[in-house]
Amino acid sequence: MATYNFITKTQSDIFPNRGIGLAIPFNGNTGINSTYLTKDAVRANLLNFFLTARRERVFNPSFGSGLRNLLFEPLTDNNRASIRSFIEEGVETYFPQVKIEDITVGFREDDNQALINFKYSLRNTNITDELTITFTNVTTI
Amino acid sequence: MSQQSKKIQYLNKDFDALKQRLIEFAETYYPDTYTDFNEASPGLMLIEMASYVGDVLNFYTENQIQENFLQYAKQRNNLLTLAYNYGYKPKVTRAATVDLDIYQVVPSTDEKGYVEPNFNYALQIEDGAQIRDTSNTDIFFYLNKDVDFTISGSSNPTDISVYSVDDDNLPAFYLLKKSAKASAGKVINKTFDFGIAERFATVEIDDTNIIRIIKVTDSENTRWYEVPYLAQETIFEEVENVATNDPNLSQYNNTVPYLLKIKKVPQRFVSRFKSDNTLQLQFGPGVSDNPDEVIIPNPDEVGLGLPYGQDKLTTAWDPSNFLYTQTYGLAPANTTLNVEYVIGGGAASNVSANTLTTLHTGSISLYGNNLNGNLSTTVLESLAFNNPGPASGGGAGDTNEQIRQNALSSYPTQLRTVTREDYIIRCYSLPSRYGIISKAYIVPEDTIKTNFSNDNMYSNNISNMSLYILSENTTGTLTTANQALKQNLETFLSEYRMLTDAVNIKDAFIINLGVNFEIIPRPNFSTTSVINRCLQQLKEYFVTSKWQINQPILIRDIYTLLDKVEGVQTVEDVEIINKVGEGYSEYAYDIAGATIKQILYPSLDPSIFEIKYPDIDLQGRIVSL
What we know:
The complex is a heterodimer of chains A (about 140) and B (about 625).
Chain A: H1 11-14, E1 21-22, E2 34-35, H2 38-50, H3 77-94, E3 98-108, E4 113-122, E5 128-135
Antiparallel strand pairs in A: 1-2, 3-4, 4-5
Chain B: H1 15-29, H2 42-68, H3 76-85, E1 93-94, E2 97-109, E3 116-117, E4 123-125, E5 130-133, E6 140-143, E7 147-148, E8 159-165, E9 171-184, E10 186-194, E11 202-205, E12 210-217, E13 223-226, E14 234-240, E15 258-264, E16 268-273, E17 279-283, H4 292-295, E18 335-343, E19 356-361, E20 364-366, H5 373-382, E21 384-386, E22 395-396, H6 400-413, H7 420-428, E23 439-444, E24 448-451, E25 456-459, E26 464-472, E27 478-479, H8 483-494, E28 502-507, E29 509-521, H9 527-541, E30 553-554, H10 555-563, E31 568-579, H11 591-594, E32 595-596, E33 599-600, E34 607-610, H12 614-617, E35 618-622
Parallel strand pairs in B: 13-16, 26-28, 29-34, 29-35
Antiparallel strand pairs in B: 1-22, 2-3, 2-9, 2-21, 4-7, 4-20, 5-6, 5-19, 6-9, 8-9, 10-18, 11-17, 12-13, 12-18, 14-15, 16-17, 23-26, 24-25, 26-27, 29-31, 30-33, 32-33
C-alpha cells in the first residue's frame, strides 16, 4: 500500500504575482522591493529579526535577536552556545512555522568575524532554505 | 481605471489604533501588493514606525490644546503665562508681617521753662531699615515706612515716658516709643547696564524667592515704576499729606497721613515670574524723549482755529514715528538701572515674639543740628527694636494647582469685588509683602443692630458684610491675624470694594479637634502597619489646606475612609473630641451637641475645624471581634 506524504502549498505561492512582504536589504530605485514567494518572505523576516537588536523596535522591546550584542564578546565555545540559544529561542517565539534544521556558528579569530549559518524548513511545506550571516565590521548577508 | 477613493478615518490617535488601522488600510487597498503582517516582517516594521510618528504627532497636538487652557495646562511656564493673562500675579514666596515696637531715649530740656523731651535728639529712620532675628541670622525684616520720632498723631502716636531722673528728681532722659509695621525679607540691589535702546527689552533677576520690587532707578536717579501692564501709563502715588504737597488737605494729616495721587509715568516696566521662579522685567518700546504730540499727529489739535494753535495739517509725518511713542513706556537707553528688591519670606519668617531685636542696616539720622556729641552717641546707642507679638502670614509660594485655581477665580471678578467669592479671592490675592490670609469667609450681616435712641432696631442691610479671616504661624497651623495684617487687608480691599459695601474684618474661630478610632484588622495583617496606614489617611484627610471656614465634618466619611484602608476589616468606632487650652484654641466646643445624624456642624459664628497636632491628636486602637 502506498504511503502518501501530504505537503501543503502555501496560498501565496499559488498566485506568484501577488506581493507578500518586503525584501531585505532595501535597495534599488525605490529602496523597497516586494517578495512574491513564501520562501523569500520568510527569509526577509528572519533577516529582519536577526539584524534587529533587542529594545530597538518601538513599542516592541522584546523583538530582535540580540546577536549584535555578542559581537564584542570573546570568541569562545560558551558564546557559540549562546548564539545558538539566541537563535533557537527567537525562532521559536516569532517564527512558529519555521523548523530549525541546523545551526553552525563559526569564528574566524584572525579576521574578527563571526559566521552564522542557519538551515531551516517551513513546517508542512517542502520549502527549505539556508541563511548565512557574517558579523564583522560590516555585516553581510 | 479610475483612481479608487480611499476612506481615511481620523479617530485613531494612539500607536495601537493607528497600527491596526494601517494594517486594515493595506488589506483593503493593497491586497495584491502586501499581505505579510507578521510581526517580524519588514513591512510591519515600517507600519509601526508610521504609527509611532502618528502617535507622537497626536500627542503634541493634544498637548498644545491642553497647554492653551488654564484648566488643563500642566507646565508651570504655561500656567504662569495664562495666569498673567487672566490678571492674576502668582507668588513664589509669602512674607510674614509683624508689628514692631521701636524705642529710643532723648535727653530732657527746660528751654521753655519746664522740663520736656528734647526732640532735636529724636531719630528719623528711613523705610527699608533691616532688623534681624536674633535666633536665626537668615531672617530679616524691613520697615515698610519711615519712622519719625518727631511726629506724633492719632494714627501714628509716639508714647513718651520718663526713662531716668537726675539728682533733683527731674526727668533726665525720656523714653520714646513708636510702633511700625515690618515685613519679612532682605533688601537686595542689582544693576543692569543698557546701551542702545532696545524695544521691549527684558532683564532677569535670578533670585528665586523674590517678594517684590521696591524701586528701580536709573543713572540720573529717575525712578522707573512697575505697572500691571505696559499700556497702563499712570500709577497711584502716595505722597505725604503736608502743606507743601496740598495746602488745603494738610489740615487732616493727623487722620490722613498720605494722599493718593495719579501720576503719569513714561518710565515704567512690568514684571513676571518665570517657571524657575526667577523674575523677568520688561520695559517699553519708546525711544524718543519728545512728547508724543511732537512726533505723531494729535486730532485734538485740528480744527480749533485758535490763533497760535498748533494744527500741523501740512506737516509730513513719518509713519514709523508711531513706533517710537511712549504708549507702552520708554525703553531704557545708555543708562544703568538699579533694581532694589526684596527676597526671603516663607514659613520660617513667621518668627516668635520678642525675637526681632537687632538692627542690621538702616539709614538713621538725628532731627536737630549742632547737637552734643556725647548725647547724640547715647541716643543713637539707645535705639532698640522688639516685636511683642509673633509674625504671621509667611508661607510658601503658589503651587501649580494654586496658580490655576487662583487665576480662574480672579478672572471673573474683573478686579472688582461683587460676590462673596470675589471677596474671598481678593483676600487671597493680598500681595505677599502685606502678609498672608490662610482662610477667608464672608457673610452678609443681615441682622445689623443699629443703636437708636429709643429702641433697638434690626435692619436688613445687605451691603454690610462680615469678613472672617485666619492666618497661619511658623508651623503652618491656623492663628488669628494680627492687627497689621488686618489693616493691610482693609486698605487693600478698599481699592476694589463697591462704593456701598461695608466690610467688617473679624477673626474666625478655631476649633481644635482630636480623633480617636477603633478598628478590627484583617487576619494576617500587622496591626502596627494597619494603624499607621489609618493615621496617614486621617492626616491627609484633615490637612488644614483642604478645610474651609464653616465646613462641617461628615463622620460617616471618616468611617468610609478608614474602611478602605488596606488591612482594615471593620471600623468599630470613631470619636471626635474637642482639644482646648494648653497650646490649643481657647474656644471649647460642644461636639456632642453639634453632631446631628453623624454630621459635626461648626458654630453659628464662623469657625473652622483643625487638627492642630496630627501626631498626637489622631489616635487609633486595635480591638478584637
